[in-house]
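Internal ticket - ligand job 241, fe (ii) ion:
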Amino acid sequence: MVDIHSHLIPNIDDGARDKAEALSLLRMAVDEGVTRMVLTPHFHIGRFDNSKTAIFESFFELKLAAAKQNIPIELAVAAEVRIDAELLYLFEQGRIPFIGSYNNNKIVLLELPHSHFPPGADKLIKWMVGHSITPLIAHPERNRDIQKHPELANKLKRLGCLLQVTSASIVGDFGTRAQDLSEYLLVNKLVDVVASDAHNVKRRPPKLREAYNKVASEFAPEYAEELFCITPKQLTESLFI
Ligand SMILES: [Fe+2]
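stdout (structure tokens):
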């Protein structure tokens, strides 16, 4: 599997606390069947003010530590970017890490707040799409407005977004609403990628296999392959060259 959303870089956001935890998480990912992983620390203005340079420096440190421990996993880095009006300026300055490319567009892993669908988000998304940037929306199933109005997910797709659902939502770890919306998105073929959004060993491990098996048995094995392996690999291929 190819896991393209995770918070394993230590001391940079609310993910892994130290190098030991990061390495444990990588080993857990390998045990789940992950062969490639994109580490995506929060890029959240005012909360996690991580510059692209700081993210890359911390990433290379962890990559080296993983190589020294012979952990059999390929690693790359990007970011989970919280939606903000200031992004327009940062995109123009080349200061946002992209997660890959798709149909000649660059892809950004874009996070909405959990509480609501922010006014003006559709305008910002249209601006991005108009500038050859495709937003890959992180865990739309956890957004309360989309939970109340699932058709907002259809709207995001119509605007040109891709959707990433989190594996823990599919198996019910984020509650019934997130699970029900995941089901709606899966049934209606609105999901492009499933990823772990792993943060730590205890509460939010890189758990993918259970969700993979659920999608394979409830829908089709080919569908699970597409969401957990084929599409995430295609979208992020440029990071691994
Ligand atoms: Fe995340």
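Auto-summary: The chain has ten helices and ten strands. The two ends are 18 Å apart (CA to CA).
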